[in-house]
Specification:
Layout (H helix, E strand, L loop, with lengths): L8 H20 L2 H5 L14 H17 L7 H7 L8 E5 L7 H4 L7 E5 L7 H12 L5 E7 L3 H11 L8 H7 L1 H7 L6 H20 L1 H8 L4 E7 L6 E4 L1
Parallel strand pairs: 1-2, 1-3, 3-4
Antiparallel strand pairs: 4-5
Helix pairs in contact: 1-6, 7-8, 9-10, 10-11
Bound molecules: zinc ion (ZN).
């Protein structure tokens, strides 16, 4: 697994805020009570339940795929969002430059909380970010978004199948995908495509299993976690898992 990077000022600030959120949860002992102290919710249209959030997300992807995205009023949105945020979705996506979640779902400022890392897998910092979105910002939906021809998963396949080695920290990244790749080594079809889908499914499962905070939100119906694959050719996101 990757080593922890040194703490920057911004990261220290974020972890402090995240700790405050987690502390509030421990004190109250229940997710809904802690959420009563959450930050302001400036976008009324983002106060959705998980099913409504998923429907809105996929409608936005449809507009993007068909080339009929909305005109976004960034000037007025900046003003409205100065005092807080209430994004209706958190997306854990790959860092690949061809996938931009805000574009792919036709969202404006304050709509989509993005956590990005090559290969869209669970890291401690990524999980903390998602917990912050759910517990403090009341985000009702998490999507794990993989994509066609993912270079990170291709490295994971090579590391698993051919014992390939990679320079620098890339080795740790490639190694992180080995458990998912091993599950599909003998499956029919394209190995990379299968590994990409398996990694998304495994990441969804890990988010559900490894965070008490997310599990609480799931159990109370405040949160839904879903996987998707972004198709490079069409721009469409196919839901999986
Ligand atoms: Zn990728």
């Amino acid at each position: 697994m990757l080593k922890q990077p040194p703490l920057t000022h911004d990261r220290r600030q974020f972890l402090r805020l995240a700790t405050v959120g987690a502390g509030a949860l421990m004190l109250t002992g229940a997710l809904p009570a802690a959420l009563a102290h959450a930050s302001p919710a400036p976008k009324a249209a983002n106060n959705l339940n998980p099913q409504q959030a998923l429907a809105r997300l996929m409608e936005g992807n449809g507009r993007y795929a068909e080339g009929v995205t909305k005109r976004h009023e960034f000037m007025s949105e900046r003003e409205a969002l100065e005092g807080g945020q209430n994004p209706f979705v958190a997306v854990l996506s790959c860092a690949d430059s061809r996938i931009t979640p805000e574009y792919a779902f036709d969202t404006g400022l304050g709509d989509l909380f993005a956590v990005r890392v090559a290969g869209n897998f669970v890291t401690d910092d990524g999980l903390a970010s998602l917990e912050y979105a759910v517990a403090v910002l009341r985000t009702p939906l998490i999507m794990v978004l993989g994509h066609d021809s993912c270079g990170a998963l291709a490295a994971g396949v090579k590391a698993t199948k051919d014992n390939a080695t990679f320079p620098g920290k890339i080795q740790g990244l490639a190694d992180a995908f080995k458990p998912s790749v091993r599950k599909v080594l003998k499956a029919p079809g394209d190995l990379l495509a299968n590994a990409i889908a398996q990694n998304v499914s495994d990441t969804v499962a890990r988010l559900k299993a490894e965070s008490a905070l997310l599990a609480d939100a799931l159990a109370t119906g405040k949160l839904h976690i879903v996987g998707g694959i972004y198709r490079l050719h069409s721009g469409r996101v196919e839901l999986i898992g």
